[in-house]
Amino acid sequence: MRLKGWTFRTGVAYDPTPVRTQYRVPAVPDNDRFWLSAGVGYELHDAWKFSLSYAHEFIKDADSALRPSATAPEAIKGNLIGKYTGSVDIVAAQVVYRF
After folding, report:
1. How far, in Å, are 20, 24, 29, 30, 75 from residue 78 at the CA level?
2. Confidence band (pLDDT; 50, 70, 90) for 22?
């Protein structure tokens, strides 16, 4: 939507995870997530443009059920059974000068 130099943006996204429960590790406790975002931009004149945006990720709670096989080198590390929770906030700003 534009209104005399102003631009308004919104968005929603669904991002399914490729990681299955039996392979989820603490370093990357990924799971399905929904994104909501909003942004505003203002073009002062042809040379200057300013933008600000915000996004929030709602991440579904993730279970971990790592059980290494008895013959794998990781067998001595044991099992990792647990649950992860999380969310992400992203803020971005931009200034453009054209010459």
Report:
1. 19, 14, 18, 21, 6
2. confident
Quick one: three-class SS letters along the chain? CEECCEEEEEEEEEECCCCCHHHCECCECCCCEEEEEEEEEEECCCCEEEEEEEEEEEEEEEEEEECCCCCCHHHHHCCEEEEEEEEEEEEEEEEEECC
Domain range for 23 is 2-97
Band the pLDDT of 92: cuts 50, 70, 90: very high
Please state the pTM of the whole predicted model. Answer: 0.70
The tally of domains found in the chain comes to: 1
